[in-house]
Structures are given as structure tokens and as C-alpha cells.
Design brief:
By secondary structure, the protein is mainly β. The chain contains 1 helix and 8 strands. The strands form 3 sheets. A 4-stranded antiparallel beta sheet has the order 3-2-1-4, with helices on one face. The protein has a two-stranded antiparallel ribbon with strand order 5-8. It is globular and about 35 Å long. The relative contact order is 0.27.
């Protein structure tokens, strides 16, 4: 599920992904590799900006592993489900390496996904 994007909303360069846990909290699970021009353009038409009520408002993310530089992000409404390709390296529910965005699943909503900490 998309929660934030890097770059701009039109078009984004990458996405930060999250899943809801049993308490309804949106948990960060990883980020994508840089999006292709085509994927960024397709995603841009589906992203919705949000105000200060986003679950990750005020949270910062590092620009890269081990970096002190903060990643510049734009908050988006966390209502899109993304299908990704990921390796099996997972630590405490977080993908250790960036994932590749395959497509947005318009046939699914966030409630269709397993909860964070589940499967």
C-alpha cells in the first residue's frame, strides 16, 4: 500500500509502502526502487495528496541505509494497493531491500491485505 512518494505526486520517483496492523496503525514496510517513467506516470493519476492527518505526518525517513540525510517525501492518501516484487530478506516485517513496483491493484482495497505482523 502506498503511503508516501519520493519526487513529486506527478510523477513520483518512488513509493514508500505500508500495511495496517491489528490496531489500525499504518506501519512502514519498505520502499520501492526508482519507478520507470511509465509506472510513475500511471501512478501519478491515482495518487491523492493528504493534509496533516496522515498517519506518517511528522515522521522522517533516511535517504538510504546508514545515511543521516532525510528523504524528501510527499504524503499520499494510503488507499492504493500495490503489487510488488521483493526478495525474501525481511526483518521484523520490513523488507530489507527496495522492492520493485509491478502494478497498482485497482481490484483491491487495503482491507483485503493481511495485517502487518500476520502472513
Amino acid at each position: 500500500m502506498t503511503g508516501e512518494v519520493t519526487g513529486t505526486l506527478s510523477p513520483p520517483i518512488g513509493v514508500l509502502l505500508g500495511r495496517y496492523d491489528a490496531s489500525g496503525r499504518l506501519r512502514y514496510v519498505g520502499r520501492s526502487t526508482p519507478l520507470s517513467t511509465r509506472a510513475g506516470t500511471q501512478l501519478a493519476g491515482q495518487l491523492k495528496p493528504v493534509a496533516a492527518d496522515h498517519p506518517w505526518h511528522g515522521r522522517s525517513f533516511s535517504a538510504s541505509w546508514g545515511s543521516r540525510e532525510t528523504l524528501s517525501v510527499d504524503l499520499t492518501k494510503p488507499d492504493l494497493v500495490a503489487e510488488v516484487s521483493a526478495d525474501t530478506a525481511v526483518d521484523a516485517g520490513l523488507w530489507r531491500h527496495p522492492v520493485r513496483l509491478l502494478r497498482v491493484r485497482v481490484d483491491m482495497i487495503p482491507q483485503d491485505l493481511p495485517l502487518f505482523g500476520g502472513q
